[in-house]
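User:
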Amino acid sequence: MTTQVNVTSQGRMSLPADLRRRLGLAQGGAVLLEETADGVVLRTAAQAVARAQAIARNFAGGRAGQVSVSGFLAQRKADSGE
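Assistant: Predicted structure:
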């Protein structure tokens, strides 16, 4: 879905109410903007956390709940031959 929003000279933009409701932002909240080669991606904080968790699961081979930071670093060290 594509929605046009206008950006003011102060850099502000308003998201339409129906979009805010669908994103869980009806009462306001944080969003993150990611600049990509194709443009800008807007994510809610919850979407950004879910994306980071999915990336972590991918690197942990699906064992994200069983991986600690120290375990991850030890595995990276072993993988690099240090």
